[in-house]
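Hi R.,

As promised, here are both runs. First protein below:
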Amino acid sequence: MSSAADQPHHSGALPPGQHWRDEPEIMHYGPVPPLRPDRWTFVLGGATADGLEHTFEWADLAALPRQDLVADMHCATRWSAAGLHWAGPRALDVIALAPPAPEVASVLVFAEYGYAANVPLADLRRPTTLLATTLDGVPLTPERGAPMRLVIPHLYTWKGPKWVRGWNYLGAEDTDLGFWEQRGYHRRGHAWQEQRYDYQGEHP
């Protein structure tokens, strides 16, 4: 029998405590940000390998190879949506633009309006982790996270911010927490291990 970590991303099976809904619910904290392509940048900072902060424009990320991914989506509020078709550059290829220092084990992904989420570097480096720009073959709508959102299929959806704008690599001394992690949610949030809340432990 496969372990929770080995569960496929589109399996027709539900993680524990979830129920199916026909399409993903539109959920976010705060207003929907206006689209401003001329001002859009993506920043990789914190404990980078060279100690510098790197800023990229939309064209830099658009030039990366695009990956297609069919995956289920799992929200910590207990709904799941099956077989969503995402496309965009892999987070792995974005990491290669500005790699982390050797000691880095996690990142703080940040988005518009100060939203952030803690994500283990190993999960960000998975080949199925995307910076999605399209859903079901069409560009993301503003409500779905346009122009770009992070998709990590095996983690709960709060780990994949809409309107993503970059991440900071966290060193061993960094204790920064994301929006929901500050409010008692799990540091990793693995859907198949039902890691909803911090008191459950088993942090990366």
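And here is the second one, sequence first, then its structure tokens:
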Amino acid sequence: MNKKMNYLFLFITTIFMVGCTNVEDSAITNGERDSQEETTVITNENNVEEEGVNAVVNEAAEEKTEEETVSTNVNEPVEEDTQTQQNSQLFSGYNLIEVDGGDLSGHREANVVVNIGYGNREYWAFTNEYGQLVRVFAAEIILQDDHNEPVLSSGRYYSDEAKVPGVESDELDEGHVIADSLGGVANAYNITPQESTLNRHGDQAYMEKVILSAGGATNFEAIITYPNTETQIPSSYQYTYTLMGNVIVDTFDNVNPDEVNASLDLTDSEPTAPTSPNTSGDISSVDTNGNGRVTIKEAKAAGFSMPITSDHWLYQYMDDRDGDGMVGE
């Protein structure tokens, strides 16, 4: 009986111990699970905090980048048009206006600047307070392009020139300051009443020929002087321009150079020899290709000296491109 009681006590004790062990294990397991869950929660909270920090950092970086971009844009020097700056200085004190290149009215506004270059050329003409054309400036003279520009058969852009007061005189031409052949237009801001011989055969014509032969010029400037404030007929001209690095200054009065030369005994006393040994008017010996027209080369080969003027019988068969009454000048 006592043995049975001992076995029963041992069995109960064993059961009790096993039960306590399960409870402890369960408690430990639950504790570990709680700890893991807590750790997980903490980790998630750290992730949220890190994401928030990263977002703030990224936003700050983006703002800094934007600020740097704005700062860079603000601090970068804006590239300005040098030509515009130069023109602004050049035009100081003058009112810039536009006048059609073929305007024949002959009227000029006072204290204005006008572009007298044909097409995209920039040739600037200036008037004084009396409406007199006193200065013309061009950074570059660009020759007429008769292959790509609407040039008339006369070699001009327009069929006529502005009727500036004074050009009605038989002794005065509608003289271009910058000729058609050099890219100038025909309005009153490029025309002055000029002594016809000077314009066609004198210093004015020579200057134009020199620039043509050189293929253009740079830093071109014309200063035009008047005897008083009431007339539009100049008394003198001064041209300054650069050819192949050489600065040329040419000053001359608005008078007949032949008369001046005669007064200075600079002309020949003998009459001028005829320009051609051929006076028959028959071009068959000159027109070598038989097309009815005579070139400068053909005329020279036939013994004619240049230039051929409008009063010569051969002139009608030749091409006077600039319409100045001479071919081969």
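A quick note on the second one: The chain has three domains: 1-79, 82-263, 274-329. Let me know what you think.

Best,
J.
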